[in-house]
Specification:
Chain lengths: 226, 284
């Protein structure tokens, strides 16, 4: 019964890492610097790629021995296990890395839009009060972007549930189901084992979880607004 | 006096800016590596240098990988299938969302709020969650392994309905009333009053719809069984699993880039449009 943990692990890791990878670069990109086009292109281009193409490219990076990812890690002094997609402890992490690479640009857009709508006057007041950059970031920018953060959390959560293209390509849910998330299990039960009953049960659980999550979030955010 | 106070402050600020710029550049380069690597690898001859993963330093460039990949799998048929599926979905969606959006913005009827709420709730349940029941329905309809089967589950769009409803609500009521007084029928109202100011919303929806369905994988994989209906994404995965491909990365990257090329090039040209439409399309 580690399917639940398998599904929840990515969502737990995904959402915060999306918020970090989405928030940080967007703050960087939001500034007026030269070559802004290059930055936007660099962060946004993965989101128009099909997940299977992204995973196919990353398949090479994770290749043991001569794969680019491992070569880079070795260069930095990493000497641990190298077979990312074949190691039960690392398969899920490998899958998450690909998802972060592909999706963070998408979450970044929302932070960018949020940042551009922030009221200038609050920052002027903070500057008058002598707040430093760090204080401004933690006490003003992040609280003001709360709604954006909630929205991105919901989207990232649902994305983590519904995307298994990269898992199919990279690990096929293995080794020994270490990277089989809920939807992958559903696919496996229905189309590999032909077990219609179990797959129907998983579908029901799946829908209930998603609806419960969304409704809770919705009620929560509406109540705090009032 | 004032100089001696402000200069350390400015110094740290400049230093901070430098660090942030450096960090941003580093991250941006890191993010670009996979696609750039794939691009270079696809033009390198499939020699043994490739199998060691060392592709950066070489001057030999070849198109052979693309030609070889194209000949190994029916990519032409995959292209046709993907384009037909994407266009079918988009054209049907545009009709259904405009009509539904019109109903929900123009008319008052019993249970309107509840019906709309259930449509919105549906946005939260991704189509992939309903793989098994959808599969059963398609089989029952006798459409298994057809292009139509790939498209059918997406004929209605909760998100699109919401987007159009919002756009139509923004149309001034006076304008609608004037249309009614001039004797417009309901479809003339849509065509001449509601649609013209809503074009940007529809363009945004179209971009995200095309991107989404061009890239979709799991549903087409399940519902197709032969090359006559298989789209690019499922075709690519099948290609990577071909026995003779093995770990020939130059072939794999060439095939991958062939699959992403049209959308990717369009994205490079209309970057801002794409980003805007993704921003508006929340939950695809």
């Amino acid at each position: 019964m580690n399917k639940e943990s398998c599904t929840l692990a990515p969502t737990r890791t995904w959402s915060p890492s999306f918020i970090i990878t989405g928030a940080c670069p967007s703050m960087l990109v939001n500034r007026k610097v030269r070559g802004i086009g290059f930055f936007r292109l660099a962060f946004f281009h993965p989101m128009v790629l099909p997940m299977v193409s992204a995973a196919t490219i990353w398949m090479f990076f994770f290749t043991p021995d001569y794969g680019l990812f491992n070569s880079a890690l070795r260069f930095l002094g990493y000497g641990g296990p190298e077979n990312w997609t074949g190691n039960p402890n690392m398969a899920l992490l490998a899958v998450i890395i690909v998802a972060i690479w592909k999706n963070s640009g998408y979450y970044m857009i929302y932070y960018l839009a949020g940042l551009q709508n922030l009221p200038r006057s609050v920052y002027d007041a903070a500057a008058l009060d002598g707040a430093n950059g760090w204080q401004t970031l933690w006490l003003i920018t992040f609280p003001l972007l709360r709604r954006t953060t909630i929205f991105i959390t919901i989207v990232a959560f649902i994305d983590a549930f519904r995307t298994i293209d990269h898992i199919y390509v990279l690990t096929s849910g293995g080794p020994s189901r270490a990277s089989a998330v809920l939807l992958f299990e559903l696919w496996l039960q229905r189309f590999e084992y032909q077990d219609i009953g179990v797959s129907a049960a998983i579908t029901v659980v799946f829908v209930i979880v998603l609806v419960a999550f969304t409704v809770t979030n919705f009620i929560n955010s509406e109540r705090k607004e009032a | 006096m004032s100089v001696s106070i402000s200069s350390p402050g400015r110094l740290t600020k400049n230093l901070g800016n430098w660090i942030i710029n450096l960090l941003a550049t580093f991250l941006a380069l890191l993010w670009s590596v996979p696609v750039i690597w794939a691009l270079i690898a696809s033009f390198r001859p499939a020699s043994d240098a490739m199998s060691r993963g060392d592709i950066w330093f070489s001057t030999s460039v070849t198109l052979e990988n693309y030609l070889h990949a194209w000949s190994l799998a029916p990519f032409r048929q995959y292209y046709i299938n993907t384009i037909i599926v994407v266009l079918t979905i988009l054209s049907v969606q545009l009709v259904t969302i405009v009509l539904a959006g019109f109903a929900f913005s123009h008319y008052k009827f019993f249970g309107k709020r509840w019906i709309f709420f259930f449509i919105l709730l549906q946005m939260m349940i991704p189509t992939s969650a309903l793989l098994a029941p959808n599969f059963a329905t398609i089989r029952w309809m006798g459409l298994f392994d057809t292009r139509l089967a790939i498209a059918i589950p997406y004929f209605g769009s909760a998100f699109g309905t919401f987007l159009v409803q919002q756009a139509f609500l923004a149309v001034p009521r006076d304008l609608v009333d004037a249309g009614i007084i001039d004797g417009c029928s309901w479809w003339q109202l849509i065509l001449h009053v509601y649609l013209p100011p809503s074009i940007p919303a529809l363009v945004a929806f179209s971009i995200s719809s095309v991107t989404w369905h061009w890239n979709e994988f799991l549903w087409p994989l399940i519902i197709t069984n032969s090359d006559k209906s298989r789209p690019l994404t499922a075709g690519l995965v099948r290609f990577t699993q071909l026995g003779e491909i093995g770990a020939q990365w130059s072939l794999l990257t060439a095939a991958t880039l062939m699959v992403i090329a049209p959308l990717f090039i369009t994205f490079l040209i209309f970057q801002r449009r794409f980003i805007q439409s993704f921003l508006h399309s929340g939950l695809k």
